[in-house]
Amino acid sequence: MPRQARSHANTPAGKRPWWRRLAWGKTPLNVIVRQATARLKKAMSLRRFYWGGVPLTDVVRHRVQQAQHLVWRQRLSLGLVAVSTLLLLLPASAMASVKTWLAVYLSWQPTIGVAFVHSDKLGHAAMFAVLAFACRLSWPYTPMARPAGALVLMGVVTEALQLWVPGRTGTWGDMAADCAGVVLGMVVAWLLWPGAKNALSMRMRADS
User: Fold this and answer.
1) Which of 32, 147, 158, 201 has the fewest beta carbons under 10 Å from its own?
2) How far apart are CA 177 and CA 116, in angstroms?
3) How far is CA 70 from its chain centroid?
4) Per-residue pLDDT tens digits for 81-133
5) Whether 151 contacts 182, CB under 8 Å
6) How many angstroms separate the CA atoms of 159 and 96, rounded?
7) CB neighbour list of residue 50: distance below 8 Å, 6 or more residues apart
């Protein structure tokens, strides 16, 4: 432990600050701090710090790249959530216009309504499965219950708001389909996440 150093013969102890009179053994403490700081700067300049056998600078660069990938995935997921919410709350006339635009400009005519009686339930489940899958991969280190709960709340709120949207009706069946889609998307993301994580790590190593 630092202790009070003896005052030098040529300098009165009362005229020096108290921190300059501290010493470790026979060496003044301020000299020890300067030497340690110089060694730390030299070690950092030579990149001698390692994290699990990997240079610390490479670890930091890898973490920054990983964070950048996560930011872009999170932006994409939030965009999908915004578009899905807009589609769920559009009036029936606006939805008919969207279907007409798809049929005219993209030469795509949905025929799933002819083949399935409950095609709207299947559409709800597929939409929320995609949202759950995207959100889970965008926030992989967040507990699964948080994005799942947020999407379930989104489904409940949009179904309730559809009661006041012209031409739209919110039903318990649609709400159940939303919840089933969330569960399906989370399960698929949970099964595929180890492989996706390894592929992402290999890609970032190749980029670096």
Assistant:
1) 201
2) 15
3) 5
4) 999 999 888 888 887 787 777 667 666 555 544 455 567 788 899 999 999 99
5) yes
6) 19
7) 56
Q: What pLDDT was estimated at residue 118?
A: 65
> Sign of dihedral through CA atoms 147, 186, 180, 127?
positive
Residue 112, CA distances (Å) to 27, 95, 128, 163 in order: 84, 16, 18, 25
Buried b (16+ CB within 10 A) or exposed e, 91-126: eeebeeeeeeeeeeeeeeeeeeeeeeeeeebebbbe
CA atoms within 13 A on the CB side of 86: 8
Residue 8 parent element (H or E): none
Phi, psi of 152 (to 5 degrees): -65, -40
Among 110, 89, 92, 84, which Cα is nearest to 185's? 84
User: Token pair of 189, please?
Assistant: 């993301």
In angstroms, the CA 81 to CA 150 distance is 11
In this predicted model, what pLDDT tens digit does every residue of 49-80 receive, in sequence order? 666 666 666 667 767 766 777 788 888 899 99
